[in-house]
UniProtKB/TrEMBL annotation:
It is a multi-pass membrane protein. This is Outer envelope pore protein 16-1, chloroplastic. One of its GO terms (biological process) is protein import into chloroplast stroma. GO terms for cellular component: chloroplast outer membrane. Residues 1-16 have a biased composition (Basic residues). The keyword Transmembrane applies. It comes from Noccaea caerulescens (Alpine penny-cress).
Amino acid sequence: KKKKKKKKSRGKKKKMPSSTFSGTVSSPKLSVAVDMGNPFLNLTVDGFLKIGAVGVTKSLVEDTYKAIDKGSVSKSTFESALKKMCKEGVYWGSVAGIYVGTEYGIERVRGTRDWKNAMLAGAATGALVSAATNKGNDKIVLDAIMGGALATASQFLNNHYFI
């Protein structure tokens, strides 16, 4: 019989530390049904609530980042962050409500649902929001153009890429 030679090791082999991460990321789905008895009001309130929540979340994330960067949270910064979250939520929700309501109204008047409704509603919303903030006539026109362009682009993307 042949004897197998054992290899002499120069010490114990160390394993590299390793870790694994697994998980599933899925978007949470939140459905809020508000029945105001009128489709116009239902859509407007729905847009306000959903996009208002986005505005609150945006503000929350920004203020959380600032608090982590600063390393501390005081009562006054917490109160300021809470006020900012409310302000952002109402602002974003109001803009969304105006846009959704205007688009629905234009759809009802025109009798069709297409990108032109989005363009007109975006332009009207941009102009109205700009006028409400007293930024001057030139800014109102520029914001109307921007609102129309963004709404039209969003409509094209939704209809052609996210079916």
